[in-house]
Design brief:
Number of strands: 0
Radius of gyration: 31 Å
Structural class: mainly alpha
Oligomer: single chain
């Protein structure tokens, strides 16, 4: 009986001593129990509707972009493209390398659609498979290294001596004795 009384008395004294610190914003670390209780309270206060089934046919823009990516990457095949891409998406596709076009083709429709929507909304974040951001406005691309858009053959390899010769540096061959 005295043990409970002294435990309650010590808890009250410590509570009074902690009060100024709690007023200033210093609080004890949250425990797993307190976090779980707070999460349960929020979940009960704001119920969430169950997630609906997402179908691939609900992402027509992603499918259209995927068709145009196939047409740019696989130039040896015949592709009938009934609908042209909007200007921002066409400029985005034009600036992609063949590897990135392959990622567009293999990307799930839902993720690709979210990336396109975010880019057209002004986001500059990279997309799935590190795809570059979709510009909100059409951009004239200056092709970066390897960004052929799937067209053309393999890039020209340059020997080090050829590159130095183009820059005006020619190696001096001499033999020392």
């Amino acid at each position: 009986m005295f043990a409970r009384f002294f435990a309650a008395l010590i808890a009250a004294i410590l509570g009074v001593l902690r009060l100024p610190f709690e007023i200033l914003g210093f609080r004890p670390r949250p425990t797993a129990e307190s976090v779980a209780a707070a999460a349960l309270d929020v979940a009960q206060a704001h119920p969430v509707a169950p997630a609906s089934e997402v179908r691939a046919d609900l992402h027509p823009v992603a499918e259209l972009v995927r068709q145009h990516a196939r047409a740019r990457l696989f130039t040896h095949q015949r592709h009938d493209l009934p609908v042209p891409l909007p200007a921002p998406l066409a400029s985005w596709i034009a600036g992609l390398s063949s590897t990135q076009l392959g990622h567009v083709i293999g990307c799930p429709s839902e993720r690709l659609q979210k990336h396109i929507n975010a880019g057209l909304g002004g986001s500059s974040a990279d997309g799935p498979f590190h795809l570059p951001a979709v510009p909100a406005e059409p951009v004239r691309h200056v092709a970066s290294k390897g960004a052929t858009g799937g067209t053309g053959g393999p890039s020209r390899t340059t020997d080090l001596t050829e590159a130095l010769a183009e820059l005006g540096f020619t190696p001096q061959y001499s033999y020392r004795r």
